[in-house]
Specification:
Shape: globular
Largest sheet: 5 strands, mixed
Distance between the termini: 23 Å
Helix content: 40-55%
Order of helices and strands: EEEHEEEEHEHEEEEEHHHHEHHHEH
Strand content: 15-25%
Number of helices: 11
Strand order of the largest sheet: 3-2-1-4-8
Number of strands: 15
Radius of gyration: 21 Å
Length: 322
């Protein structure tokens, strides 16, 4: 392999991954990947460095073949200084200068972004948003994170807090997400759908009715996936849960459309798997709430990279380094 490679490092609460890949004809050719458990700070950093060298070595590459290193990690972090700042899922990672550490070790440029911004770069460079200049990416997974591409660049805000759409309050009361009842994340996330389903199921059971996804009345094992399965089987209460989420998705996206005027909004995970359920009600609300000229130019599409987005994310950070 004679071409320079990009190196991606994904730092998670339970495991980390190192990926190498090459940009090719506007796409990304992923060459290899290795994962290992996240341990203490020093041990994990040591494993990151050793794993990068190991993956390079088994592909007959050396440090000199690296073009750039991208690091994806949960926030908070400071992308400008390259410092990870005490993410809740990474105990002990207090002001760790991860970019400086890897730049000194490998003598190449590196950069770090939070996972939502990394996924936004991935979908923009190699997925559904390829070719756009103004794009919003939304995770719609366990939580609701977002990344903003504005005028052909990732926009992170004054201190990396841009795109925290999940914190917007859509209702005075409602499911709790991002520490706020009635928030966008509360209505449009896996945890929020689970809360909605639990509340509606309680109402039904207290009135003597039965609920297909918890026939024995036990709500402890309830998940958004279980509600989605009931939805696919035609359960009317599961349909009601997703209708509530879909209408609030439309309300939240109307704000995004009016404020940012994007040409595309790319939505992942739960929306991508259930677009047929979400889209009609979401579009109905957007038609009533958003500015017509802004909504007319905005396409709302499911994420294209699917489960592979994690492999693309950190590599996309490396590909974006100037």
């Amino acid at each position: 392999m004679n071409e320079k490679v990009l190196v991606g490092v994904d730092i998670g609460g339970t495991k980390c991954a190192v990926t190498i890949g090459c940009p090719k004809n506007g796409d990304l050719d992923i060459k290899d990947k290795a994962s290992f458990p996240t341990t203490d700070v020093d041990g994990t950093i040591r494993n990151i460095i050793e794993t990068i060298k190991m993956v390079l070595g088994r592909n007959r590459l050396t440090d000199k073949d690296i073009q750039a290193i991208g690091i994806s990690c949960g926030g908070p972090l400071d992308s400008r200084s390259g410092v990870i700042m005490s993410p809740p899922n990474l105990p002990g990672w207090d002001n760790i200068p991860i970019v400086d550490i890897l730049e000194k070790e490998f003598s190449v440029k590196a950069a770090v972004h939070n996972d939502a911004n990394a996924c936004a770069l991935a979908e923009w460079k190699f997925g559904a948003g390829k070719g756009t200049r103004n794009m919003v990416f939304m995770t719609f997974g366990t939580g609701l994170g977002a990344g903003l591409i504005i005028d052909g660049k990732l926009y992170t805000g004054s201190n990396d807090n841009a795109g925290e759409l999940g914190h917007i309050r859509l209702e005075p009361f409602g499911p709790v997400g991002y520490g706020k009842a009635g928030s966008f994340e509360g209505f449009c996330s896996g945890s929020g759908i689970e809360q909605l389903a639990r509340d509606l199921a309680k109402e039904r059971m207290q009135m003597g009715g039965k609920v297909s996804w918890c026939p024995d009345g036990d709500l402890s094992g309830l998940t958004a996936k279980k509600v989605a399965e009931a939805l696919r089987e035609g359960d009317p209460l599961a349909k009601k849960v997703y209708e509530i989420s879909a209408r609030h998705l439309g309300a939240g996206l109307s704000l995004v459309i009016d404020i940012l005027n994007p040409e595309m909004i790319v939505i992942g995970s739960i929306y991508a798997r259930n677009e047929d359920v979400f889209k009609p009600l979401m579009e109905e609300v957007i038609g009533k709430e958003a500015l017509p000229l802004a909504s007319k130019v905005c396409k709302i599409v499911p994420a294209a990279l699917g489960e592979a987005v994690g492999d693309y994310a950190a590599l996309s950070i490396a590909a974006d380094i100037q």
